[in-house]
Description:
The chain is an alpha/beta fold. Helices cover 42% and strands 16% of the residues. It is built from eleven helices and twelve strands. The longest helix has 21 residues, at 83-103. The mean pLDDT is 94.
Amino acid sequence: MTTLITGATGFVGSAVLRCLLNAGHAVRVLARPGSLQRNIEGLNIEVVAGDLRDPATLKQAVSGCRALFHVAADYRLWAPNPQEIYASNVTGTRNLLLAAAKAGIGRIVYTSSVATLGINADGSPADEDTPATLLDMIGHYKRSKFLAEAEVRRLAAEQGLPVVIVNPSAPVGPRDIKPTPTGRTVLDAARRRMPAYVDTGLNVVHVDDVARGHLDAFQRGRVGERYILGGENMSLYEILRSVASITGGRPPRLRLPHGLVLPIAYMMEGWARFFGRGEPRATVDGVRMAKKKMFFSSAKAERDLAYTHRPPAEALRDAIDWFRANGYLG
């Protein structure tokens, strides 16, 4: 039998794909027609063309599959048309799970995000039970993932779907081809293009540890449960200092207040919208999210799934080595 994975051409998905292949899975990849397939070149896989937003293209993808890893997501903190994010993350997830229900797929791992979880006001690490509502979600990406996870739970209950949910934190590592917002921060720091920083924090984890956590959830996770797949909580300054240590540079010394950065983000978004030059370097939603330290605990996954993670310095080094080897550093 075959395992279907979505999002394998992207960052986290490409790591999950390699983990599945190493574990002996026969893998089918759902990829949009015309999508960049650099991350899956040369791998022993079956590629099926389809689009999560088009239910008619999903029947062939799920046919004959015993397992599904739904990793694909539109991970942008800004988009000229925000409805594109909802169409992929919410409607696309609904379409895929309905197709999986009709095909009788026996095990599903859905990749959510820590973006759907609550954050403790005192800065202590949040966990799977930290409460959150849609009103707590800042920006279209977080709202779309919150709604998508709610849709997964609803469909699982109505259709009897055997779903396990994983919530990765901020993955870092190789094959971040876009790169993601977190990867772009690492890349800008490595290029010495971050003269200043704001007081915020992330939970940094190696993308390959997140991928292995997906397999752990597939093998040991309880249906209906969700598991944070994270690493170590770090302030942004600690991340930048670690990058500087790896590259031989210096971390920025200037810390800017959020109130000063916010109008800059508004101007950058206006510039990007007017000239159509893609996602701006600083986004309003990104600055608003940065007001809180996004710290999380993976204790539940460590206890129930035997999940482990390596030091974040290894993730940062592997990311920088990949960026350098692939010409991102100039």
